[in-house]
Amino acid sequence: MLQTSVSFLVFLTVFGRVVAGTVQVRTAPMVTLDNATVTGVTSGSTSQFLGIPFAQPPTGNLRFRLPKMLPPYNTSFPATAYGPACPQQATTLPLPSGLPAEAIDYLTNSVYNLVISSAEDCLTLNVVTPSNATPASKLPVVVWIFGGGFEFGGTNIYDGSIIVEKAISLGVPAIYVSMNYRLNAFGFLASQEVKDAGVGNLGLQDQRLALQWVQKYISAFGGDPSKVTIWGESAGSISVALHMVTDGGNPDVFSELRSWKAPYYDALVAETGCSDATDTLQCLREVTYETLLTAVNQSPGIFTYQSLVLAWLPRVDGVFLTADPQYLVQQGSVADVPFINGDCDDEGTLFSLSTINITTDAQLEEYLHTYWIPNASTTTIAQLMTYYPSDPSQGSPFDTGDLNALSPQFKRIAAIQGDIIFQAPRRFFLQSRSGKQSIWTYVNKRLKTVPFLGSFHASDLLNVYGGSDMASYLVRFVTNLDPNVGESTDLYWPQYDVTTSQIVLELLDGLVPQALTTDTYRAEAIAYLTNVTLANPLCLTQIEFANELEDTSTPKKTVTIPIHRGKPSNNADTDEDEDKVSSSSDESEDDTNSDEEDVDISVPSISLKPGHREPPPQRDSPSPPANVDIPPFIAPNAPESEQVLKEKFRKFWMASIAEGFKDDLEEIRKEPNLGPSRLALLIESLASGADVFSSNSAGTSVNEMEVVLGQLP
One of 161, 234, 434, 584 is an active-site residue; which one? Predict the structure, then answer.
């Protein structure tokens, strides 16, 4: 059971080159755990204790079993190097021909493309502290859960010293913890056999055991076990959200469970030669590591044709997760702690590179029906496609017009995938919890100029592990339960309130790094997706546990999504709770007031009975359409492209060309009546070469941009 003292930080997007550097050894720090002395290393202003085992090795007969806590530490050991990551599912980045070098560079230098040392004996964690921390320090603690689609990833590619040094620089020192957990089939095997043995969601159970370890031992490092915040990205943020969804919602509803299909388990059994075994699960425990890993690598991955419809992911198992997460959120079975969540603007682009051969409406409809929502009627899918039209200007990367159309359906598919997995759950969770706890949300719109990818999934990690402004917000939240407390030049970040402002913090490139907007973009489309996923829970895809008893207490209904039409407010509640969270991908339904407009997006025959789904009709999975030629990327003509003008203006500013003009703009920025929205408008106008006046209409006129841009190469 998760300790109530643990709180959460979930942000659901982010990847980039964030590789931990070589540790420079100086004076060796030491801590005492039980009867053992653990020796770490010093790096800069931090002490690092790396590769500490927190569970018995999940090997041999402990494979596919719940993690077991280690006995007390009785033998001293060095903790000077990261432990191996858990077994990795083989991944090949989709790099279609015609993809520009800039996009390829971002992908090939990302965590998706790193070679990580791995082994089955992998359950270790790392602790990074300020070098002057003592057991009496009682510092707040950050626990990082890495992402990777529940297929790959590890702790050694994230340098926790960056976070600790950022906290020290802000005057709010903190401790950083990261843990490995089992992945792919090793951690998320699912079948009737797995359910009967009570060994589902082992990766999540590993995380929970690591959190229990933190509660028991973190005080020895100078941490306060009552001030623990969980951070997560991508699969890590989903994990954090699932730790928030308590298991006390309505467990009796799932007193009888049945499974009807476990195709990936069956395929794994066949690939390992266990088909004829009386006990297939025990047979899987006994095959060699190499045999099992080879079989795992035959299963679909996150960059294969079915993309984010993952083979291995958290399931409703009746133990760790007692019902579909959306249902638990609606029932109010959520940890009552402050949290932050957020997404990148173009979450779906990266995962749509593997589906560029889908070029027609008919192919897209078949794809959605086969992989995403097999239970949905053709009417539901047709309606979904009207909310996400084939018009490239409406697709992702958003706000790029007709540019970045890698194939006829690419931007459309990217918009659907980004919203159904990231934006819709984030908004659902916010709207469900608004008014019940302190919450903040953000959207990352940086790197918009990366061709075809835009502000792609995980790109905000560059900000966090680069020690930039987002890291500052999050570190302040860890210490104060509020991202705004303390001295800062960052924009004030108001809380999210569904009944008034629905404010979102935007992270931007250019002169204005942060701005405020409202969380109303694609409101009807995202509301429709929410209802579709209520009827077709995504965490139940491929292996469903269905309630055999009719739940008459829950009426059939759809979600009414409140859409606030007012302007954002700069005022924010400052209520503080004793625990905390920060997140990026979640779910929502809430009461509304008379000042709001409700948009009732109905989906026929939706029942909120948890987990109840009829098996879809058996369908042959379509083969990916034949390869299509990808048109080469053509840079837009500068005189005709606002995007290029903006980029040139950014370069102009950063190069400090025309210092006098820069000084004029700085004076405008300082004007007391010039709010963030007006300043953003000013920059937009400057980028397009327009005349601009300050907000009181009596300030400086700026009309030199077009001339200056014309002098640039």
Answer: 234
Assigned token pair, 148: 């990777």
State the catalytic residue, choosing from 369, 457, 564, 612. 457
Domains and CATH numbers, the chain: 1-16+45-52+99-252+301-634 (3.40.50.1820), 638-710 (no CATH)
Distance of CA 143 to the CA centre of its chain: 15
Structure tokens at 415: 């918009």
Kindly provide the b/e burial profile for residues 678-688, where b requires at least 16 CB atoms within 10 angstroms of the residue's own CB: ebbebbeebbe
**Is the pTM of the predicted complex or chain greater than 0.70?**
yes
457 given a catalytic annotation = yes
pLDDT band at residue 108 under the 50/70/90 scheme: confident
pLDDT tier for residue 555 given thresholds of 50, 70 and 90 = very low
For 453-489, write each residue's pLDDT tens digit. 999 999 999 999 999 999 999 999 999 999 998 778 8
Residue 347 is a catalytic residue: yes
Best CA proximity match to 589, nearest among 563, 611, 561 = 561
Which entry of 120, 193, 347, 544 is annotated as an active-site residue? 347
CB within 8 A of 483, min separation 6: which ones?
340, 440, 473, 474, 476, 477, 493
Size of the chain, expressed as the number of residues it contains: 713
Q: Which residues contact 687 (CB under 8 A, 6 or more apart)?
A: 510, 642, 645, 646, 649, 705
- Please give the C-alpha separations between residue 675 and each of 37, 160, 451, in angstroms, as whole numbers: 55, 35, 31
Q: Which residues contact 62 (CB under 8 A, 6 or more apart)?
A: 56, 68
